[in-house]
Amino acid sequence: MASPQGSRAPLEFGGPLGAAALMLLLPATMFHLLLVVRSGPARLLGPPPYLPGLQVLWSPRMLLLWLTWLGLQAALYLLPARKVAEGQELKDKSRLLYPINGFQALMLTALLVGLAVLAGLPLGALPEMLLPLAFAATFTTFIFSLFLYLKALVAPASALAPGGNSGNPIYDFFLGRELNPRVWSFDFKYFCELRPGLIGWVLINLAMLMQEAELRGSPSLAMWLVNGFQLLYVGDALWHEEAVLTTMDITHDGFGFMLAFGDLAWVPFTYSLQAQFLLHHPQPLGLPVASVICLINAVGYYIFRGANSQKNTFRKNPSDPRVADLETIPTATGRQLLVSGWWGMVRHPNYLGDLIMALAWSLPCGVSHLLPYFYLLYFTALLVHREARDEQQCLQKYGLAWHEYCRRVPYRILPYIY
Ligand SMILES: NC(=O)C1=CN([C@@H]2O[C@H](COP(=O)(O)OP(=O)(O)OC[C@H]3O[C@@H](n4cnc5c(N)ncnc54)[C@H](OP(=O)(O)O)[C@@H]3O)[C@@H](O)[C@H]2O)C=CC1
Ligand SMILES: CC(C)CCC[C@@H](C)[C@H]1CC=C2C3=C(CC[C@@]21C)[C@@]1(C)CC[C@H](O)C[C@@H]1CC3
């Protein structure tokens, strides 16, 4: 089948074979983590304690609970927003509109969950439901991705993403064909990227904390830290929701299995691994060590937020007094590249801050197990790969100016090392 785009984009992720392998590997890894984290040895690289049968994984009640969660988040998405933002310019020169009410959705979810807990909702029972819930999330993701794939068949060529339209159904199903699939004004990719998964993640963390309080009298200091750090991260993402509109996920990648599974299943069920670990493997943590860990998280957050805000402010208005003094490189597109401030230190200072925070999220779990460091390892691989993809796109966009930027700022993420 010919590519609808005329010229074929180079295949990523190892082509159709790589895509097929990832579609099996990613859910398998998620279930492996969910199983080993509750086992005695909790070995990342060891075998799971048992292989759950379909009677353990499949539960119509959990499917209903999962769909109710998605429905609640969809309803909150549709509430009036404090602001409606314009997305980046599309191929046909139009711009889509996006509601900015993610933080409001987080607050309303917190209020509803608080009221439900007061009314007797046993949130502490959630840890026991994670396996069937994750199965329901994975199952619905496959169905949803099929819907997205079929929907793209009737989409105009201008609505298709640069990748994900190779003509190979497995590869295209995985990568996603349509750039911004919508039904009326409901944008599936934007909705999934920030709400059900991220808010679900902190809700699972909270359930671990409540269950720990029930089992041991009070939540441990380690559990408080993990909950606090990750709530800050999710709250920050939703507070700065508009910034997601310039990420490659929204502007470049199609919406298919990779992002749908990542957003809806991978994020809530694997990003909450540290809290799950602490529930099953309590770790003593003294105040002095906790203070050092808080400091590491604060340094990471300072770099992450400083770098992201500096770039966002600059992209919105290069003459803004907060960024007007920074040194820049002009490019043929008319846009400029920052070459001092955070973006003069390394080419991805925001990734550096994010990785430092990832370390701080694992440290409360002690150093006896590798398992709680899974996020740090996975995230390093994700960001190194993401950086390489972004580099490729920037080279295409900015050509010689990008070469000049790389010459002036030679390190990618870690100064003097990488
Ligand atoms: N927790 C998680 O799982 C994940 C977290 N993240 C986080 O999300 C955030 C967004 O990440 P991501 O979308 O990957 O990438 P970035 O926010 O780093 O955006 C990259 C883009 O920034 C612009 N840019 C690059 N260099 C410069 C410069 N010197 N001056 C001005 N603009 C520049 C370019 O776009 P242009 O020139 O077109 O503006 C480039 O394509 C990051 O903080 C990241 O850590 C990301 C992925 C997963
Ligand atoms: C399943 C695969 C391994 C790949 C999945 C990738 C996704 C989990 C991530 C792709 C980009 C993401 C972003 C975020 C969360 C993870 C995913 C969805 C943020 C929302 C995290 C908070 C930041 O402040 C913004 C991020 C934007 C990109």
UniProtKB/TrEMBL annotation:
A single MF term (Gene Ontology): Delta14-sterol reductase activity
Record has Lipid metabolism as a keyword: yes
Any Pfam family: ERG4_ERG24
Membrane disposition: Multi-pass membrane protein
Chief subcellular location: membrane
Catalytic activity, reaction form: 4,4-dimethyl-8,14-cholestadien-3beta-ol + NADPH + H(+) = 4,4-dimethyl-5alpha-cholest-8-en-3beta-ol + NADP(+); 5alpha-cholest-8,14-dien-3beta-ol + NADPH + H(+) = 5alpha-cholest-8-en-3beta-ol + NADP(+); 4,4-dimethyl-5alpha-cholesta-8,24-dien-3beta-ol + NADP(+) = 4,4-dimethyl-5alpha-cholesta-8,14,24-trien-3beta-ol + NADPH + H(+)
UniProt-annotated location(s): Endomembrane system; Endoplasmic reticulum membrane; Microsome membrane
E.C. numbers: 1.3.1.70
GO process annotations (BP): cholesterol biosynthetic process
InterPro entries xref list: ERG24_DHCR-like, Sterol_reductase_CS
Lineage top rank: taxon: Eukaryota
Keyword list, A-Z: Cholesterol biosynthesis, Cholesterol metabolism, Endoplasmic reticulum, Lipid biosynthesis, Lipid metabolism, Membrane, Oxidoreductase, Steroid biosynthesis, Steroid metabolism, Sterol biosynthesis, Sterol metabolism, Transmembrane, Transmembrane helix
Pathway annotation from the record: Steroid biosynthesis; cholesterol biosynthesis
Gene Ontology CC: endoplasmic reticulum membrane; nuclear inner membrane; receptor complex
First-level EC class: oxidoreductase
Record field: transmembrane: 17-37, 57-79, 100-123, 129-150, 218-235, 255-273, 285-304, 355-379
Keyword Ligase in annotation: no
Function (record text): Catalyzes the reduction of the C14-unsaturated bond of lanosterol, as part of the metabolic pathway leading to cholesterol biosynthesis.
Similarity remark: Belongs to the ERG4/ERG24 family.
Protein name: Delta(14)-sterol reductase TM7SF2
Organism: Canis lupus dingo
Gene name in the database record: TM7SF2
